[in-house]
Structure prediction request, 220 residues.
Amino acid sequence: MDFLTVISEIKKHSDPNDREGMARFGINPQYALGVRIPVLRKLAKTIGKNHELALALWDSKIHEVRIFASMIAEAEVTTAKQMDSWVKDFNSWDICDQCCMNLFCKTPFAWKKAQEWVGKEEEFVRRAGFALVAALAVHDKKSDDKTFIQFLPLIHKYAVDERNFVKKAVNWALRQIGKRNQNLNREALKTAHVILKIESKSAKWIAKDAIRELSSKRFK
Prediction:
């Protein structure tokens, strides 16, 4: 499919009711069509990987089309420059998370960008850094425990960020690291208990939620 055909196909599945409901889930409805993720994934499977098309589709600015672009983009040819460009366009948590899970975590720049982005002040750039770590905890089968443990001090540092989309991503990263294996579970719980002592509503929420999940018997 070419650019116009893909746009047309995605628009066929637009649902005004879904679009109106997006705001209730904290999703920015600007440029949105109201197309569900399973529909996008099904279409992406029929097309396969096409990086050139993905780059063109991203420039459309359409919410679901950008998510779709992350599904068909090729991690092998994705550059650090492209990642920095796309992350600056993030205006909603779902685009952020989908790009991190579908594409960014599979690139050779994933860890480097995660470390860079968590230090940025922009809400969705910082979220992307932590969302990327959460995705890596699931998909990166090669990195050792030390790689993840080295990121725990950054989770501690930014646990005081009170912005909703950031604190949820910090919590997500901590929980995913702790679910990777028993050793990381212990390390993540140690970090959570330290965070719990910080006088910050965000930090206490992050810690309590992580401790509740990571203390489950299934991790013992």
Observations:
- Residues 1-73 form one domain.
- The chain is about 65% helix and 0% strand.
- The two ends are 49 Å apart (CA to CA).
